[in-house]
Amino acid sequence: MNCNVHGQFSMPYGNTVYVSVAFSEIVTISGSTKRINTSWGDLSYVAGDGTNVLTFSGEISTSASGTLSITGLSGTVQDLAGKSFTWSGTETLSTTLDGDLTYDLSDFYTDGSGNYLIACHDDLWGLAGLVNGGNSCDGKTFLQVADIEFSHTTN
């Protein structure tokens, strides 16, 4: 059983990162602790049991640095024949932290009434980073002015 991990993004602090691990066959995951260990902290299992892709997520803390690397797997991952997968080594992704993606209020477009506009995916990530970074948005109004789709989410 083999696995592949892909990622090529720049992420700001305070936002949620999703990592999907693709296996060469259908797998199940069990155990009281299901997560991957990364250089940015542990990411918790989200979805994928009974498929060939397991997805994990977690918040990017301000103590995270450098390029995202996966260093281990907690939980029992098995193929349908019951053969267990064992993580070995480190898988380094091309996902990096980017302080420039951390928005402040001046990074948002505004309308004539002083409302801050959310017009794209990056604006929504920026707002999440702004709020999760501890910045106050007291008395501010944000308006979503376009449909925004996140392709990495699951139902």
Describe the protein.
It is built from one helix and nine strands, in the order ββββββββαβ. The two termini are 27 Å apart. Helix content is 8%, strand content 45%. The chain has one helix at residues 121-132, and strands at residues 3-5, 10-11, 16-38, 41-47, 51-59, 67-79, 91-97, 116-118, 142-144. Strands 1, 2, 3, 4, 5, 6 and 7 form a seven-stranded mixed sheet that branches. The chain has a two-stranded parallel sheet with strand order 8-9. The relative contact order is 0.22. The chain is elongated, with a radius of gyration of 18 Å. The longest helix is centred in the C-terminal third of the chain and has 12 residues, at 121-132. The chain is mainly beta and 155 residues long.
Helix content: under 10%
**What structural class should be given to the helix and strand makeup?**
mainly beta
How much is the average pLDDT? Answer: 80
In total, the number of strands is: 9
Cα-to-Cα separation, first versus last residue? 27 Å
Shape: elongated
How much strand content do the residues show?
A: over 45%
Based on CA atoms alone, the radius of gyration comes out at 18 Å
Q: How many individual helices? A: 1
Order of helices and strands: EEEEEEEEHE
Main sheet makeup: 7 strands, mixed
Low-confidence stretches: 1-9
